[in-house]
Write a structure and sequence with these properties.
The complex is a heterodimer of chains A (115) and B (110). Helix content of chain A is 0%, strand content 52%. Chain A contains no helices and 11 strands. In chain A, strands 2, 4, 5, 6, 9, 10 and 11 form a 7-stranded mixed beta sheet that branches. Chain A is globular. Chain A starts with a strand and ends with a strand. The termini of chain B are far apart. In chain B, 0% of the residues lie in helices and 57% in strands. In chain B, strand 9 and strand 10 form a beta hairpin. The chains are: A mainly beta (115), B mainly beta (110). The interface between A and B is medium-sized, with 23 and 22 residues.
């Protein structure tokens, strides 16, 4: 079974630009979550999508947005990039049923550098 | 709101036991997790414990849960160099959101 795939793995942008990151979950998983990982703040929850609907949201500004497609693939977008957005963005999928163990399967991340 | 706290660094001599501690705030957490992140990789689930359990053992790993104090610990017996990684504690709250701590970097001394 293929794991969670994130593209691109690395990218460099300049302040003010926007970026779109993509995530393909494990086949059969309907939930996709996004996290931002930085050395100072650790792993911070951005949002979770389930069956094309945002199910949960973290405390990030509106510049951070996401969506999920009917095949469960997800994208996240960051507009008007700031230096502080430089981070590793991790995508994680799970089956999504409320009674399951909630185990998240992570991709290797997309490392964004904002200059 | 939800918050998960853990110490940032731990150094342990090879062969000794490592104990990583974590505190959480959401008393309605259903599951608590330990994830491991090796350099350049995403996170991988090590083990989890359901909130109605006090202890779970899985080979070299022992998880202890104190619900009253909202305290979770992970003990790794006979720590090896391959255990060097960042360990994240996480809780699953009532809204099904999974919140992580900042991670504990485990360093193994020869």
């Amino acid at each position: 079974k293929a794991g969670v795939t994130q593209t691109p793995r690395y990218l460099i942008k300049t302040r003010g630009q926007q970026v779109t990151l993509s995530c393909s979950p494990i086949s059969g998983h309907r939930s996709v979550s996004w996290y931002q990982q930085t050395p100072g703040q650790g792993l911070q929850f951005l949002f979770e999508y389930f069956s094309e609907t945002q199910r949960n949201k973290g405390n990030f500004p509106g510049r951070f947005s996401g969506r999920q497609f009917s095949n469960s693939r997800s994208e996240m977008n960051v507009s008007t990039l700031e230096l502080g957005d430089s981070a590793l963005y991790l995508c994680a999928s799970k089956q999504g049923a409320l009674l399951d163990t909630g185990e998240l399967f992570f991709g290797e991340g997309s490392r964004l550098t904002v200059l | 709101g939800e918050d998960v706290e853990q110490s940032l660094f731990l150094s342990v001599r090879e062969g000794d036991s490592s104990v990583i501690n974590c505190t959480y705030t959401d008393s309605s957490s259903t599951y608590l997790y330990w994830y491991k992140q090796e350099p350049g990789a995403g996170l991988q689930l090590l083990t989890y414990i359901f909130s109605n359990m006090d202890m779970k053992q899985d080979q070299r790993l022992t998880v202890l849960l104190n619900k009253k104090d909202k305290h979770l610990s992970l003990r790794i017996a006979d720590t090896q160099t391959g255990d060097s990684a960042i360990y994240f504690c996480a809780e699953r709250g009532r809204d099904d959101k999974i919140i992580f701590g900042k991670g504990t970097r485990l360093h193994i001394l020869p």
